[in-house]
Write a sequence for this structure.
């Protein structure tokens, strides 16, 4: 392992000597190339930072929307329970209670659909980010 490291060190020293022995214009060209690479990486990092902030904001917005939807569902569930208690004595009123149960189940399905929609949006955003990275790389 020490020999391997010594060999790598010799290779790096050789590269340094080559750069030292290069004419000044070659050194300047290499410096410009490295500066350009650095600028591209900084630009890509800035883009990633903006996208991350945007995704974070969107995540918070979706979490607030989900919380308000869950709160609404809880409120509707309480209303449904109260209505069922009031109608418990009347067997003739079972049809409206069943309808209320159906409405509640539909709301739960909508909540599940919203969650899956959010997951789909996240997947599409991730795919979009990856494609942008590939374009930037090319």
């Amino acid at each position: 392992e020490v020999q391997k490291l010594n060999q790598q060190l010799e290779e790096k020293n050789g590269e340094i000597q080559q750069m030292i022995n290069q004419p000044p214009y070659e050194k300047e060209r290499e410096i410009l190339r490295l500066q350009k690479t650095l600028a591209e990486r900084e630009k890509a990092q800035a883009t990633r930072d903006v996208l991350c902030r945007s995704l974070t904001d969107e995540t918070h917005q979706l979490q607030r929307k989900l919380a308000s939807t869950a709160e609404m569902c809880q409120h509707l569930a309480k209303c449904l329970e109260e209505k069922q208690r009031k109608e418990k004595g009347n067997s003739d009123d079972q049809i409206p209670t069943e309808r209320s149960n159906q409405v509640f189940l539909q709301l739960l399905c909508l909540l599940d659909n919203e969650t899956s929609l959010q997951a789909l949006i996240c997947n599409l955003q991730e795919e979009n980010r990856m494609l942008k990275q590939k374009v930037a790389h090319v």
Q: What stands out?
A: Confidence is low (pLDDT under 50) at residues 91-95. The CA atoms of residues 70 and 124 lie 25 Å apart. Residues 1-93 form one domain. The helical segments are 2-21, 24-87, 94-137.
